[in-house]
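REVIEWER CHECKLIST
Item 1: Sequence provided? yes
Item 2: Single chain? yes
Item 3: Sequence as submitted:
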Amino acid sequence: MYERMLDDWLSLLHPVGAGTRGVTRTGYTDAEDEMHSLLRSFALELGLDASEDSFGNTLVSLPAAGARPRFLIGSHLDSVPEGGRYDGVAGVLAGLLVMSMSRDEGVDLPLATVAFRSEETSAFGPATIGSLLFTGAPGRDSLLRAKDSAGRSLRDAIKERGFSPDAASAPLEAELYLELHIEQGRVLESSGVRLGVVSAIAGAVRFRAVVEGRQDHSGATPMGMRSDSLCAAAEAVLAAERCGTAESALGTVATVGVIRNEPNAMNVVPGRTALGVDVRGTDERSFRRTADVIKAEMAEICRRRGVSLSLEEVAASRPVAMDPEVMTGLSSAAERMGIDYMVMPSGAGHDAMNIAPHLPTGMLFIPCREGVSHNPDEHADTGDIVLGARVLYEYLRGRK
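Item 4: Structure as written out by the authors:
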């Protein structure tokens, strides 16, 4: 029954933001609005109440509940550009499934489902915007001043959707927060395990490296007289890979995900190349050490090649541990149900990392096919989503 219900919901959500490749449902846009509108319609069909807070987050709750819910289940409904259809969505719908299971079995769970706005990196730069505003995290004014490429502030974008970004956040009076998510990797699938109990969400250091050489004619400049920024940057990319691999036993990863080469013309020796570097892990000493070694190696490469290097750290975050008691409870629920599970870290960021400093928090991972995510081919089996929802329900029923 629940798989059929889930299939029906997904069939209505899948077309939203669809293009020639994947779906684009970026934060605080018409497509994200439509996703939240559909969620509210699903809730009303189930006889549940649905409302929006001052920041556009949607809260689904039992009708006429006298007190604020003790338990929250949440995730997000937006996507990266040309992304997949399950990232975030699976977790929000799992919350509705748990609420349905509770009502169908006559178990009075004081539970609400929350769909956060703009979890993915937005046009304004920051990510996990809805959950940051929901928790009243410090630095709100700085967050709301962030601007897109057209110079529009995040504050104005939220106001344009009809919300109030400067309103006070409601007190977090719940007892705990849970989030189900696709793994976004292939550890579960390759291990043949159906469920992951998340131990921690990785922290990160992100920095921008700009290599400045000399722009010259590609035909008239001899090889020995060049100051090619791209060649130096290419060595730097390989250095980042090498440094990440050296720390991989501690779970650290290093990625150069952005290359902007100028003037990027076939007949010109590149004069300026910018790199975006992302170093992550759950061992803070390891990933910060890795970032420092990458920077040092880049500096040596550029010195040897006679080009200049500038470095700018653009973001840094600490790892966020999940609550040990919640982890134990989720693991015990899976064991009671006879479900194979493994305890594992999350290399990706999630709304849960913003809730964890305020409430005991836990996460479950379900497999995604071949580990593909942030990609039009992203796919999760509805049976796995329902299974994850059942584990959440079993855990919450035991806590009631």
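Item 5: Key structural point noted by reviewer: The chain has twelve helices and 15 strands.
Item 6: Recommendation: ____
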